[in-house]
Amino acid sequence: MKRISNLLVGLAAVLVCTSCDDIFEEDISDDIITIITPTQDEVISGNTVTFMWNGLEGADNYRVQVSRSNTSEMTLDSLVGKTSLSVPFPSGEFEWRVRGENFAYTTSYTFPEGFLVESSNDLSVQNVFLSTPSDNFYTRNNTIILNWSVLEAAESYSLQVTKTIGGNSSVTLQQDELVSTSFTLDANTLDGDAAFKWSVKGVNETSETPFSNRTILLDTQVPNQPSLISPNDAETVGTIVDFSWGSPEDIGAVQSPLQSLLEIATEEDFSAILQTYTVAGGSGERQHEFSNPGEYFWRVRMEDQAGNIGQYSVVKTITVE
Questions:
Q1: Which branch of life, at top level (predicted)?
Q2: DSSP 167
Q3: Does the model's pTM come out above 0.85?
Q4: How far is it, in rounded angstroms, from Cα 250 to Cα 92?
Q5: Which domain holds residue 80?
């Protein structure tokens, strides 16, 4: 009888744990989201549709769906963490809806709202949508291919690149009358570590779009060699060990986000790595529990978001009792 009781208690504990997320998430299933724009039968001139709705307390994200009115073909299914979404759209009739979501619950979708997108030769109400690279893109490569979406009413495109270093900015490239939607930047433009803002606008005989902007962050400096803090070299420790390390300050023109790579090995040449940990930042700490006593070796190196890899630290040894 006692065994059955223990099984029931264990099952109850499992049920409680599996519903923990539900307990901490707000139940939004009966809440209602209100659409702001576009509303029913709204006509949008140009190539850009901005969907907006009122935020909902308890919703972590919102799912936006758009379909063609005549075929019900889904043209957009996007999960966003804010209460607006701007996307390029071709001409045609569409319907859209939105719902709120958190980890455990969703609201019902709003009632579909129909809208019409009309093409226009007036570029002043349109935008060039940049494709790649992403905004605030860290790289160590000084050859980058820029890409943007086709703008139907544009006859050509203008590209401008501005370099900023130490608070000083200068235009390093100006290309007009581009008919392609891609352009390759090379070392003549990306000529040193700095922030490079690239801007594209569409142009026709009567109008032009505003510039669309993104930033490339060129960082070719290798991260500093880290220093190991604890445990000390040749220290005898228990089975649970807190490793910690630091790194000199990055003084480069562009300081890419760093991550540390901690390696623990059973051989001094690291031919047999027991465990590898990746930790955000140039300084950090990580706890490891050893299963067996013996002698172990550890080291750390830095990598940055631009792809630069630094030197390993010195190797330290510990003895686990």
A1: Bacteria
A2: T
A3: no
A4: 52
A5: 25-118
